[in-house]
Amino acid sequence: MTAHISADFDSGNIVVLSQDGASFDLEIRKDHQSDFYQWFHFRLTGAKGEAVSLRITNAGGSAYVGGWENYAAAVSSDRQAWHRVPTSYANGTLTLAFTPAADSVWIAYFAPYAMERHHDLVARIASAPGVTHERLGSTLDGQDIDLLTLGEGPKQVWLYARQHPGESMAEWWMEGALEKLIDAHDPVARSLRQRATFHIVPNMNPDGSRRGHLRTNAAGVNLNREWNAPSIEQSPEVFHVLRRMDETGVDFAMDVHGDETIPYVFIAGFEGIPNWTDAQGKAFHLFRDTLARRTPDFQTKHGYHVAAPGKANLSMSTNQLANRFGCVAATLEMPFKDNDDLPDADFGWSDQRSKRLGAECLGALHEILDALPTR
């Protein structure tokens, strides 16, 4: 049997440059109409029990070269459990070296969240009591922008994920949060649904997700730089979501992401917005500190630099929403690597840890909901 690599499937991304037996030279394909690239996802067949060498030769030109330091790729034979395998980076090349235990294995930058799983998630959650589903609009590729709504309380909570499609951990987080919210036996979920109305967009970027992009939509646009002036022509995903936010108002918003380089879970706030209020800041810090108390997978020491007063980038959703609505907004970041505070040599930061963090974030929100500023 001859070893073979393919990537012509949902979220697939790799180009085979050359092959010598079970040794391959590969390249990651750039996002369409963009120079961004880092996400890879492909299938290796015909190499069971054989030492393979997979060299991604253009890793040195990727969007976040620092992301390769201490990084390990994810591999699965059943597309359920994604284990990390020996991975090294040197001289611009990322090398995966391991021996497959199965005839067919999938290899990815992080555990993928395919559009088919997205559709299954939306269908499953939408069928739960008290949940409504709505198509907000269409992407440039003609896919639906899904909105799930549940709860009957006065606080308006928006959760949205995967503006950057290669950050698949964000939709795993969504799966965990949604499963908690619909659990009829969970007292925290029941209380949250009574006190707040949740508006949830599990995937902000279906086109980039299906195309195997790292950071952009079908037009090569970074959606998280479109929130000051979204357009139907370039960023319909943001256009439709922001229009609905204007209709409902926003008291709390969380934008869920993954970070390529920082090996910790953290949140970024909105400190530099022109309309900053101390009440917003106090509630944001209360949420952050509550989450840190609830789970050892979250910390507050490592993260992004804080913008100076009045210098926030209002094209980013967290800043735009906090400034626009006077709400508490947060960008949640999870690692592609591992959480160095609580490492796991086998799985690293994983899909399952992402799901559990989604549930913990709702627990923290439950504790601080009444402290949110009144609009």
From TrEMBL:
Database matches in PROSITE patterns: PEPTIDASE_M14
Biological process (GO), any one: proteolysis
Active site location: 333
InterPro entries in UniProt: Cytosolic_carboxypeptidase, Pepdidase_M14_N, Peptidase_M14
TM segment ranges: none
Molecular function via GO: metallocarboxypeptidase activity; zinc ion binding
Cofactors, names only: Zn(2+)
Pfam families: Pepdidase_M14_N, Peptidase_M14
Protein name: Peptidase M14 domain-containing protein
Source organism of this protein record: Sphingomonas crocodyli
